[in-house]
Amino acid sequence: xxxxxxxxxxxxxxxxxxxxxxxxPPRQRVAFVLVPALxxxxxxxxxxxxxxxxxxxxxxDLDRVLEWLHGRGVPAWFDYGVVEWLANVAMxxxxxxxxxxxxxxxxxxxxxxxxxxxxxxxxxxQHLVLDQRFASAADVAANTxxxxxxxxxxxxxxxxxxxxxxxxxxx
Length: 171
Fold this sequence. Notes:
mainly alpha, disordered N terminus
């Protein structure tokens, strides 16, 4: 049975008692998330800089689903605007998660801050360049919240992952 020192990164260092991001060298953390983070970034860039609203092809379907939900007791305030806002929140949760994995815990405040800046730049670019898209402060708030939720998810799950790995390798 391999001891904690022999576990594959990033968990080997984490099992010795410190937070995942603070014990694994930065290069290993970046390498661990580089490919999925780049794929995520490409997907986000495609969504936000698509010349027309990306939900346009399914807007009729979404309206029918919302109508069906409203007929089954979902409140009327849960409408297209809420679904769109929640989609913006969800789109930036990975931003927060990737940032939390790559950065040391003391720097996690940078993750929602960079999401705020990136989202503001995206909305400004949509306003200036894409005539069929429109900028929204609500989108900036939703994206920033999504990044914060991603960080909070990691803050809640890292100790659980470390506990599970420790428990598995101490048997």
